[in-house]
Amino acid sequence: MREGFSDVEWLARTRAEGDVEAWLAWVPYARRIGVSAIPDPHADGLLYRLAPSEGNVGNVLLPALHGGVVAAFMETAATLDLMLATRIPRLPHIVDLSIDYLRTARVAPTHARCRLLREGRRMANVQVSAWQEDEAVPVATARLHFVLADPVTTDHADA
Amino acid sequence: MTPDQDRSVEAWRQALTRFVTVIPHTRELGLEVLTVTPPVVTMRLPWCDDLLGDSARGLVHGGVLTMLLDTVCGSAVLCALPALEVCPTLDLRVDHYRPGVVGRDIFAEARVLRVTAPVVFTEGTLWQEEGRPLARGIGNFVRLGPRNTPPGFAEALFAGEDDHA
After folding, report:
1. What is the pTM of this model?
2. What is the separation of C-alpha B151 from the centre of its chain, rounded to a whole number of angstroms?
């Protein structure tokens, strides 16, 4: 049996089990920057975590995390959270992203919470907030649009 | 010191090469500055498998494209200022036109569209194959001003340049 996001049975099974780690195994850049999923201590669902690492530094003077790495972390969180949240198994493809940088992200554990604001037949809108010590003091907020593809049709195969 | 706007194209290429080499994330990925013709900068991100976002289908992670646009737009900011200042990203908008594919270098070009007292406005484009853009970004950067720019910032980027100018 094949594995990976275009294998419908694998996708349905890992989704039913909430096995986000199995998904991350297929996302090398997310592994490189150190993304993981953790249970939300205050509610059902997941939060996402970016491990602090020297390889994610974008400003050595402060030092601070690379803003683009923070964005990549938030996009990964939005994608994984959306894959768990849709009514049936779907494969999100990013359409656009807009990120606002609110504060310097220090080289410290960074967390993200996602909210699915709309799931249509074709499109989804996800809002993401990222913070370090205190969720009430976000370092960045982002909103993203995704096309929701049927896992059996590989929309981008010939792109 | 030479005023920053009078620097040669080659001096700028070396300075921005230092800039992306000092940043750990872009250094480890081997990001290369190709040309700097103020206010336009081009770069090349060499292929490595860590850039994938879907290794089964061989697609580039969208976040790699955001990271690259942030870097190339932020670098263009430096060469468009009257004097070097630290300019963090205020916000960034990325439109994904088509996914990047496994095995090909990613090229980036960014330009500064407008410099005002508080903000620098930029746009950037990425491609693997000429004429087929992967993504477009619009990034705005905040000018922190000379007071908040560490002393020696310009000297570090242009190290050695004035010795044989």
Report:
1. 0.94
2. 22
